[in-house]
Task: inverse folding
């Protein structure tokens, strides 16, 4: 059984601002509650082939994984994938204009192996809760004052 979590929000900031901030993996620890660090394996900025090491806490465990950017349409779509570990994951960000604001969609999809396959429904529910909170945090940060520079 696979996991596929899709969450979206509308952020009252221009698409270019939201995409630039949310699409920069260096900013992930600021708006993802469970991501504790991101280290670049390749030189920034983000491009197809970029790789970053992430450290996260999820369901009481510390997870280390490497994301590789597999697709990038600047200001519209970013796809990162990881193949190693017990839970290969694909994360997709999309940004669309919405009446002067930005509709951001965040999708996490993967196929857990081993015990993770049995726990997939619990993992999916936990991921949905966490992702919903993360997008709410991102929205609050970017809408506060004058956007990402004020939030950083």
Result:
């Amino acid at each position: 059984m696979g996991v596929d979590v899709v969450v979206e929000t509308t952020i009252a900031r221009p698409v270019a601002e939201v995409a630039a901030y949310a699409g920069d993996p260096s900013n992930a620890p600021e708006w993802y509650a469970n991501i504790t660090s991101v280290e670049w394996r390749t030189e920034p900025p983000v491009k197809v082939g970029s790789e970053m090491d992430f450290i996260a806490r999820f369901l009481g465990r510390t997870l280390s994984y490497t994301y590789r950017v597999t697709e990038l349409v600047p200001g519209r779509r970013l796809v990162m994938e990881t193949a190693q570990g017990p839970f290969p994951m694909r994360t997709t960000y999309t940004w669309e204009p919405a009446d002067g604001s930005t509709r951001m969609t965040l999708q996490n999809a993967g196929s857990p192996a081993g015990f993770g396959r049995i726990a997939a429904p619990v993992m999916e529910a936990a991921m949905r809760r966490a992702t919903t909170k993360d997008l709410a945090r991102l929205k609050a940060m970017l809408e506060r004052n004058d956007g990402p520079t004020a939030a950083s």
About this structure: The first helix runs from residue 15 to 22.
